[in-house]
Amino acid sequence: MPRKDVTGVSRSKPPKPRKKKEPQELNRNECTSMEDIRPAICKDIQAVFELNLASFAEAWSHQALMDVLDHDYDLDVWHTTRGKLAAYYLGQDVLDEVHIMQLAVAPAFRRQGLGVRMTRYILDKKHHEGMRHVWLEVRTSNVAAQHLYTGLGFRISGTRKDYYTPKPSGFPREDALAMRYDL
Ligand SMILES: CC(C)(COP(=O)(O)OP(=O)(O)OC[C@H]1O[C@@H](n2cnc3c(N)ncnc32)[C@H](O)[C@@H]1OP(=O)(O)O)[C@@H](O)C(=O)NCCC(=O)NCCS
After folding, report:
1. pTM
2. CATH class of 33-182
3. How far is the CA of 56 from the centre of ligand 1 (A)?
4. Could you identify the atom of ligand 1 that is nearest to the CA of residue 109?
5. Any residues with CB less than 8 A from the CB of 141 and at least 6 apart, and which?
């Protein structure tokens, strides 16, 4: 029964506002330009931290990601036009080699070509910066990433035995495939 207030008028609870759901599909104009990819700044780190937690067993701490901004790493972010972090790249250049350490697309935006576009952006940029080779390691079970990279021309150059140690979160000890791309 709805409660009555002192005036005798029945007072039912106002309906709860419905939470607006973020659409899973990107709109045509959302996150379409690779020119929107830019180096991360301090206020991007919280969202990068959350996406790195959602994407990697070897997630970096918030502090470690903050420290990246003051050191010789690349941390590039790509937001949707509504300001949501869609993808980021974390890597390091050593001499003429690029090491892709993390490249992640937000779960809601996967399988829509952003992974390919972000990787192409990095390859292009590094080519223009004069880098010669790109390296990365990927879990043997990470089929999605292997398909992404082989589809772009990366080659498997070897296996690193027990590269990934077991995690309390349930990730087992696992080998890594080392992948290489010549720019
Ligand atoms: C790997 C990852 C970056 C791919 O991003 P994405 O935006 O979904 O990739 P794309 O939509 O550009 O897909 C490119 C290709 O990758 C492959 N691929 C992507 N997701 C896949 C999946 N779940 N299963 C199998 N292949 C997959 C496909 O070959 C795909 O091409 P197709 O769609 O024409 O079949 C994303 O799944 C991710 O962030 N994973 C967690 C973090 C990670 O593993 N990063 C890579 C190691 S650094």
Report:
1. 0.86
2. alpha beta
3. 14
4. 7
5. 174
